[in-house]
Amino acid sequence: MIQVPLAGKVVFVDWHSVLSRDPFWMSIRESATHPLKAQLEANLAEVFKSKANEWMKGLLSSEEIIKSMDIELDGRFREDFLTRRLYVDCAKMRVNAELFEALRKIKSHVLVVLATDNMDCFLQTFDRARAKRRRPTPQSETLADWAIILDDIICSSEVAALKAEDPQRFFGPWLAKHGFTFADAALIDDRADNCAAFAEQGGKAVQYKMGIGDVHDVLHALTIWMESGTGTPTAGMDWATNLPRTS
């Protein structure tokens, strides 16, 4: 059972374009010479055009997606090569270490939960990484290193809903289980539709995109949100970074 901090609040944080920008099968897709790159890129483009929502909502499994791509493997590759490589590459996804470090520092104040429209392969990789309880070091830069920092995960492939499409179905059961409402929750997300849907339910939405937005701005917005709900000052310092405020 997750121990809820005294502040009684939760920060949900998105994955793609917020905590990481790496794609599935990155070791193949980022290689200039991999023999499967052209096939994979072409077939994935079709998958994301026609089947992405079904995959993210758990209506299709990763195995079914791989089978539907019908990629020809020559004698150099075992039949399960693409499945194995998918999971290995998920664990090696490079992360936004600056934002992860900030999230680690705020965990004494709030719960921090990954909230992602994502696939079964990602959820399973995340769960395995957290189970290993590996602690990140200054050199850590992958999902496998940083997963332990997060308190929990909500994944669309498990709840069968997308954030913008049905925020009540996506977030509602988790919030109710832990004694929260949307008024106790904030969401960090890069997509305007996700932020709007969350805000319409009474939550605090902070739009941020990795590589474009400023982590300090995100933390400042969360600081104001926290204090407005509790009336408790934070000693004139940004509670995530220990930097003087610039308001």
How does this model look, in words?
With 247 residues, this protein is an alpha/beta fold. The protein folds into two domains: 10-21 and 94-227, 3-Layer(aba) Sandwich (Rossmann fold), CATH 3.40.50; 26-91, no CATH class. The protein is built from twelve helices and five strands. The chain has helices at residues 26-29, 37-50, 52-56, 62-69, 81-91, 97-106, 120-132, 143-146, 156-159, 167-177, 192-200, 215-230; strands spanning 10-13, 111-116, 152-155, 185-189, 204-207. A five-stranded parallel beta sheet has the order 3-2-1-4-5, sandwiched between helices. Strand 4 (185-189), helix 11 (192-200) and strand 5 form a beta-alpha-beta unit. Helix 5 (81-91) crosses helix 7. The longest helix is centred in the C-terminal third of the chain and has 16 residues, at 215-230. It is globular. 37% of the residues are buried. The model is unreliable at 231-247 (pLDDT under 50).
Summarize the structure.
This protein has 247 residues and is α/β, with parallel strands linked by helices. Helices cover 44% and strands 9% of the residues. Strands 3-2-1-4-5 form a five-stranded parallel β-sheet, sandwiched between helices.
CATH topology heading of the largest domain: Rossmann fold
Q: Which strand order spans the largest sheet, edge to edge or round the barrel?
A: 3-2-1-4-5
Q: Sheet bearing the most strands, described? A: 5 strands, parallel
Strand segment tally: 5
Q: What would you call the shape? A: globular
Instruction: List segments where confidence is low: pLDDT < 50 over at least 5 consecutive residues.
Output: 231-247
User: Architecture of the largest domain, CATH level 2?
Assistant: 3-Layer(aba) Sandwich
The averaged pLDDT comes out at 90
Total count of domains: 2
Beta-strand fraction estimate:
5-15%
Instruction: Output the structural class.
Output: alpha/beta
Order of helices and strands: EHHHHHHEHHEHHEHEH
Tell me, what is the CATH class of the largest domain? Answer: Alpha Beta
Q: Output the CATH homologous superfamily of the largest domain.
A: HAD superfamily/HAD-like
Q: What would you call the quaternary organization?
A: single chain
Q: How many separate helices?
A: 12
Tell me the distance between the termini: 37 Å
